[in-house]
Amino acid sequence: MGEFVRVEISEHIATIRLDRPKMNALNRQVQEEIAEAARLVDADPDTHAVIVYGGERVFAAGADIKEMAVMSYADMAVHSRTLQDCFTAVARIGKPVIAAITGYALGGGCELALCADFRVAGQSAKLGQPEITLGIIPGAGGTQRLPRLVGPARAKDLIFTGRHVDAAEALAIGLVDRVVPDGEVYTAALELAATFAEGPVAAVRAAKLAIDHGLESDLDTGLEIERLQFSGLFATQDAREGMTAFAEKRRPKFTGQ
To answer: What are phi and psi of 4, to 5 degrees?
Structure first.
């Protein structure tokens, strides 16, 4: 669909594929194409799960530093909102999103992976937020999503030092959810996505919304979000089918309605 980002859909699984040689640097065009792809798969009723993949060699090595180096404060004050909005479009996809991480996921690449619900990494993957070494800080969600995922102390360690972590450490601190041999990353992501592909689409969307928005709220507000999402699902055919199938001791056949 775009010059550097394309969407491939098969068996209810969409792959958002980054392809900007050599390192998938996330310049403004790539950011905008990622956002467009995210909106497309979110709205597509045939898509039940999403994989974000940078190819066999690299996930994304971060922002295009040459592009940023010539930007003034005034330039970045405007662009930074667009930058965050592009990544938030991925985080707001109302379907399970899996980042399939090969090679480097640094800076903006790591921030893009943080927008996924799950992260599958190859054994030689390297993740990190090295912006501090450039005299800046993460600007596409790293200071907010990373501490929510790994805790504030670990996030500060990574952001204050700018160091890279290998796949084993990333798994140990909860930055990734699964580590597999490098050549099996995309296959493992597909296998995980397939577990959601035949599920009740509306219920999964409701669960994701309740969890994500609840984490941004106090407990009472989160419980109200959950209550409204829970109640609303009783208007769906899938909920009726699921409960009927349970009573009849058979496997449900969800249709996404």
So the answer is: -120, -10
171, amino acid identity: L
148-156: Cβ within 8 A, 24+ apart: 148/215, 149/114, 149/174, 149/175, 150/174, 150/175
Query: Tens of pLDDT along the chain (257 residues)?
Result: 789 999 999 999 999 999 999 999 999 999 999 999 999 999 999 999 999 999 999 999 888 888 888 988 998 988 888 899 999 999 999 999 999 999 999 999 999 999 999 999 999 999 999 999 999 999 999 999 999 999 999 999 999 999 999 999 999 999 999 999 999 999 999 999 999 988 899 999 999 999 999 999 999 999 999 999 999 999 999 999 999 999 999 999 998 88
Q: How far apart are CA 74 and CA 78, in angstroms?
A: 7
Active site residues: 111, 131
Burial class (CB in 10 A: 0-12, 13-18, 19+), 231: exposed
Q: Which tokens go with 202?
A: 């509306």
The CA-atom distances, in angstroms, between 199 and each of 54, 110, 165, 195, 257 are: 26, 28, 34, 8, 11
